[in-house]
Amino acid sequence: MDGKLKYYSILQPFGRTLNLEDYIGKVLLTEIGTRGSYKTVYLVNAQNKTAFKIMGLHYKNFDELNNAIPLKLMKYPSGVMNYLKILFFEKVSLNTKK
Length: 98
Known about the structure:
This protein is of the alpha+beta class. 17% of the residues lie in helices and 38% in strands. The strands form 2 sheets. Strands 5-4-3-6 form a 4-stranded mixed β-sheet, with no helix packed on it. The protein is globular. The termini are far apart.
């Protein structure tokens, strides 16, 4: 793997490449939507903020995709308010201080 992830979307029809070296970790969560529950991985940037979201709802090979991202797994704080915060705002700050 060359440390890059390329994705396509309606807003990026010709694709955009993410350099995984720009991220310090990833957060793996299970989210619940109208289609049921699904896994989600958020990439965390150097400012300890979630910066990119990959939803398992859109990928049959989500586990393989997640395992191919060579970033350390970070813990997202538990609780209903924190879950709602990341669910609706997507770009939230992770407090790594205790």
